[in-house]
Amino acid sequence: MAFFALSAAHAQSSFDRGFNQDKDVFIPKGTVAFGLSFMGSSGDIGKNGGYTLMPSLVKDLNGSYSTLGIAPAFSYFVKDNWSVGAKFKYASTKLNIGNAGISLDEDMSFGIEDKGYRRQSYTGTLFTRYYVPFMGSKIFGWFVEGGLNYKYAQGINYTLEEGLKHGVYNDTYVTSLTIDPGVCFFVANEVSFEAQIGLAELGMTKVKQSENQVKTSDASSFNFSGGINIFDIKIGARFFF
After folding, report:
1. pLDDT in tens, 105-124
2. Exposure string over 17-26, b if 16+ CB within 10 A, otherwise e
3. Which architecture does CATH list for 23-240?
C-alpha cells in the first residue's frame, strides 16, 4: 500500500519552488565581474567604554581592539548564474589589554596587564560561486561560494616589561576548503552590493613559534569548523561587464 501511494504521489506534477535555472537567469553566461570586499571595526574594551565582557568573571578590564580586512576579486561566468574566479585578502588584527582581573572563585584569582596581540595575514583563493535569484527577482538574490585557500599569517603575543616586548612570534600556514553563503542586491545594471558570512572550513594548519627569538617549536593540526561565524562577515561591492 505504501509503494502504490508513493508511486501515485510521484506521478503527480512536482511542486515548483521557482528554482528553474532555464527560466531565472540572474547573471548571464559570459559576464566578467570585479569585486571588492572589506571588513573593519575598532573600539574600547571595558567598563569605561565599549562593552563589559562576562562581568561576573572578568574585573577591571580595559583595553582596545581594531580589525581591518580588504579582498579584491575577479570572476568569469562560465554558465548562467555560475562563476569561477580568484581573489586575494589582507587582514590585520590588533588587541591591547591594559589590565584585567580574572576571578574564578574566592580562592582563585589572578590579574594580567600590558598584554598585546598583533596578527596580519595574506590569503589567496580560487573559488566558484553560484547565484540564485530571490523568487525570480532580477535585483535581489543569494549565493553560495566554495573556495580553495592558502593563507600565510604572522602573529605575536607579547607582554610589556620596562618598555621592552617579551613574547611568542608565530608563522602560520593554512590550506583549507571553505563554504561561504551570502546575499546581494543590484543598485544598477552593472553594480551590486553584497554581504557574506563564513559558514564552514576544513583545513590543515602548520604553526612555527619562536619565543623571544630563542626557543622554537612547531605543530600541525587538521581542523574543521562549522556554523555561522559572526567574526567573518564581509561587506562588499561587485561590478559586472
Report:
1. 555 555 566 678 888 999 99
2. eeeeeeebeb
3. Beta Barrel (2.40)
